[in-house]
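Extended Data, panel c. Modelled sequence:
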Amino acid sequence: MQDRPTAPELLDAVREFMATELLPTVGDARLRFRTLVAANLLDMLRRELALEPALLRAEWERLTALLGDAAPSPANERELAAAVAAQQAILCTLIRQDRAPSGTFTALTHSVRAKLEIANPRYLDGFEPV
C-alpha cells in the first residue's frame, strides 16, 4: 500500500500521457485506435477502483433482499465479491427455471446501471430508470 501517488493518480497520469503526448504522434490508424482503447480502459479501471466497493455492497444488499437470504454480511471485499457471485448464480438458476422472484427485473436493471457507471457512464444518459 503506497501513500502517493495513489493507484487512481497513477492511472490518471498514464491516461493523460497517452491522450496528450502519445496519441497526437500516432499516425497509423490501427495503432491510434488501440491507443484510444487503452486510454478508455484506464478510465474504466479508475472508475472501478473508486466505485466498485459501494456498488458491490449495493448489489449484495439487492440480491439478499430479492432472494430472501439471511446470510450475515461478508467481512471483506473478497468475501463480498464471492457472496455476490453465488447469489447471482442462484438468481440465474431461478430465472432459467422460470421461478424468478418478484422484483427481479428491477434488481437486474439496477445491476446493469451499476455496471454502466464503471464501463461507460455516458450510456447512463439514455438509460431508462425502472
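Residues 29-67 form the longest helix (39 residues). This feature is highlighted in the accompanying rendering.
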